[in-house]
Structures are given as structure tokens and as C-alpha cells.
């Protein structure tokens, strides 16, 4: 009896294991497919969250290096402009998916116009005249902004018409509202030597600056000789006006003007007097001629009558 019990105890586990194996064998393909699908969906979710094509950048440090190297165009919406002319921009992903990019908790990034120094007129132009707030822009990141880890220097393009874009830095420089950074700026020179996209942008800006200088617009505006005289100090002008020589010349001018007016009046009266006298002389001469003619005619008539008698 004891042997039979032991055999039965040995048989039961083997049956249980065989049942387990049969369950795995029956559902092996489903388990494998489920695992593959779960892993794939998890990987896809991670890719969509981390891929630059689907990701929304909330800080300039999140922008991958490839965007700098390949000069990849990024889209964004201007949310504001700082007092120093930096643009506060909400980044728009290259491919927008609502279930990946939530509209909640969006943090804009800061963009600085690369390679230029804005004038007060330039700042006024982008903050008030151009009305670019809440408008979409395209930009290319060039390099981190020196001394500001929360900002990046960028080449920014804005829409002027539905079909044309214009480089904002070039527009400001061409109007004379901004200047290209000077060669004395060490960071500027270093970036020119190591950054091709920055060097190319500066070449374009220098050409625009030459145009503005030749046209004499904005910060390159040149004074005319009249404006140069007008900018002379009032004190100097007043002292010149009150000098004895100027006062004597002014007094002499007034006298000469009065004498000239009097002479002109006398000549005018004399002319009219002579003209009227000439007219009356002519009329008197004509009348006298007629009288003499009649007298001669009558005299001749009398002589003829006497001869006939």
C-alpha cells in the first residue's frame, strides 16, 4: 500500500507539469506577439516623446546639436519681445500630434537676433511697427548666446507676404536700425572662425550694412550743410547776430532798401509823367496840324476867288 501511495504522489506532479506545458504550447504565439507588440508600442511612445521631429522644445538646451550643424529650419510663434529685443517664441514641432504634444505647460524659448546690435528705432520697429506678436516665424539656431544660458542666437525669418519671407536681421540692418557686431568682439570673431552658418549670415549682413551706409539711412544718416548750421549752438548764433559788424550791415541794408524803394518810386512816377505828356503832346500836335491845314485850305480858296474876279 505504501508503495502505491508513493507512485500516485509521483504521478500527480508530472501530470500538473504536463498541463502547464500544454497551456504555454497552446498560447505561445499569442504570448510572443503580445510581448512584441507591447515592446513596439512602448518603443514607439518613447520615440515620439524624444524624437526632435515630434518633440516640443521648452528650453534651448533641449535643441539637438544636429539642428545647429545641419541648419534645420524650426517653426515657432512669437509670444513676446523683451526690452533688449530678444524674441520669446513658442516652439512648434515639425510634426504635431495631439496625443504627444499637449497644449498644457508650454514654456517658450528665448531667441536673440544673431550678429547685430539693435538701435532704439530697431527695437521700436519690431515691438510696435511690425506687429509680429502671435505671428508664426521660421528660425535657424546658430549658437548659444554669450552670457545667457537661457537664450540662443538665431537667424529669424518673418512673412512679409503670403508667398515671401524676409530675414529680420537683414531688414533691420538695411533700414539702418541695427549694426553688425564689430571685429573687436571676441565671441563674434571666434564664432566667425568656427561656425560656417554664422559666417555666411554675417557676410549677408555686411552687404546690407554697406547699402544702408550708402543710402545714409537710420544710424548712417548724414547731416546736410543746412542741418550742420542748424546744430550750431544758439549762443554762438546769437553772439554773431549781436556783433557790431552784423548790426551795422543790417542797418546799412535797411537804409539801402529804403533808398532803393524811393528811387524806384521816383523813376516810376517820372515814367508815367513822361508817358502822359507824350500822349498829350501828340494829341496837341495833331489838332494844330488840322487847324493849319484848314487855314491853308481857306486861304487858297480866297486867292482863287480873287483871281477869278
Automatic annotation (TrEMBL):
Keywords: Membrane, Transmembrane, Transmembrane helix. One of its GO terms (cellular component) is extracellular space. This is Protein C3orf33 (inferred by orthology to a human protein). The keyword Transmembrane helix applies. The chain crosses the membrane at residues 30-48, 259-280. It comes from Strongyloides venezuelensis. It comes from the Eukaryota. Coiled coil: none annotated. InterPro entries: C3orf33-like.
Amino acid at each position: 500500500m505504501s508503495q502505491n501511495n508513493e507512485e500516485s504522489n509521483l504521478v500527480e506532479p508530472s501530470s500538473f507539469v504536463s498541463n502547464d506545458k500544454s497551456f504555454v504550447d497552446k498560447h505561445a504565439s499569442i504570448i510572443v506577439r503580445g510581448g512584441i507588440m507591447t515592446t513596439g508600442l512602448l518603443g514607439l511612445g518613447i520615440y515620439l516623446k524624444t524624437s526632435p521631429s515630434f518633440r516640443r522644445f521648452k528650453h534651448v538646451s533641449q535643441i539637438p546639436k544636429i539642428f545647429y550643424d545641419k541648419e534645420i529650419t524650426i517653426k515657432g510663434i512669437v509670444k513676446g519681445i523683451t526690452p533688449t529685443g530678444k524674441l520669446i517664441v513658442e516652439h512648434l514641432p515639425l510634426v504635431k500630434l495631439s496625443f504627444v504634444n499637449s497644449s498644457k505647460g508650454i514654456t517658450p524659448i528665448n531667441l536673440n537676433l544673431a550678429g547685430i546690435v539693435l538701435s532704439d528705432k530697431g527695437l521700436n520697429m519690431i515691438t510696435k511697427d511690425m506687429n509680429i506678436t502671435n505671428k508664426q516665424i521660421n528660425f535657424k539656431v546658430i549658437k548659444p548666446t554669450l552670457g545667457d544660458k537661457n537664450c540662443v542666437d538665431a537667424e529669424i525669418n518673418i512673412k512679409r507676404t503670403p508667398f515671401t519671407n524676409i530675414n529680420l536681421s537683414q531688414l533691420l540692418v538695411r533700414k539702418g536700425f541695427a549694426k553688425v557686431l564689430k571685429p573687436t568682439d571676441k565671441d563674434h570673431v571666434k564664432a566667425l572662425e568656427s561656425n560656417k552658418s554664422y559666417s555666411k549670415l554675417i557676410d549677408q549682413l555686411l552687404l546690407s550694412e554697406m547699402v544702408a551706409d550708402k543710402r545714409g539711412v537710420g544710424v548712417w544718416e548724414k547731416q546736410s550743410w543746412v542741418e550742420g548750421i542748424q546744430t550750431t549752438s544758439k549762443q554762438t548764433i546769437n553772439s554773431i547776430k549781436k556783433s557790431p559788424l552784423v548790426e551795422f550791415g543790417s542797418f546799412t541794408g535797411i537804409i539801402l532798401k529804403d533808398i532803393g524803394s524811393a528811387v524806384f518810386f521816383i523813376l516810376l512816377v517820372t515814367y508815367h509823367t513822361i508817358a502822359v505828356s507824350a500822349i498829350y503832346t501828340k494829341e496837341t500836335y495833331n489838332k494844330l496840324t488840322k487847324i493849319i491845314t484848314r487855314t491853308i485850305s481857306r486861304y487858297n480858296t480866297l486867292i482863287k476867288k480873287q483871281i477869278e474876279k
